[in-house]
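Q: Convert this sequence to structure tokens.
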Amino acid sequence: MAMPSAILNFLFPPPPSLFVSAMSVMSLVTMTRAGFDEIKGKHMQYSKFWNVNPSKEKKKKIQLSGKSGMLLVYSPAFLAGAASFFVFRHDSLRITILQFALTLHFFKRIVEVLFVHKYSGRMILDSAIHICLSYFLFTTTLLYAQQLTLGLPEPPIDLKYLGIALFLIGITGNFYHHYILSKLRENGNKEYKIPEGGLFGLLICPHYLFEIIGLCGISLISQTLYALCFTLGSGFYLIGRSCATRRWYLSKFEDFPQHVKALIPFVL
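A:
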């Protein structure tokens, strides 16, 4: 997969791997399509959207509790990141940083599932498996693509330290806003409320904004084409998911503040 020379200032050259090239294109296309599906009302069946547009066909599908479903989603990717310390070579500081970032990213998510999130809905098994495979393939493919950069010249512009900063900002901001959401459901309360605090006064999905920032950090740590494609695709998906979330709140709460945007303050 050829790239313009200007882009090579920021990225490693694509490796001679048909698998990584195909996964790069597939990640961008499938995640972007999923984002458009969210906008059109075709949702992944979890969280507040798990039973949107119920039908007999959906009721026949296997359902998991919210906690079990999300543990299934994140655990394989976390295990893959942890196992990479024993499987892959450690000849590059960049690869080691990337391994720590990916493992910490999914470890933090598992901790949130176990100790932070409060679940009011269920999750369709099909959705859990789909998302699980996406995260697992992202983790393993990214680490494999990074291994293929060993021996290649580093990009002229080194972005890994900026990537570390963005990753830490993203993971911290995401956790903080998840914590705020969890406080809305104390004492067994399972009703949805309009969130307040943090950036919720400006956005209905600041946790998605910080998730994108964290993924951008991982992409800059990696500086590979695959990481860039996955981050772009994930960004498009989360844009669609946040727009659908804002539309859901507008339909459920007559007093929802119109100035609160979906993902980007004052813009979107």
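The beta strands are 63-65, 122-124.
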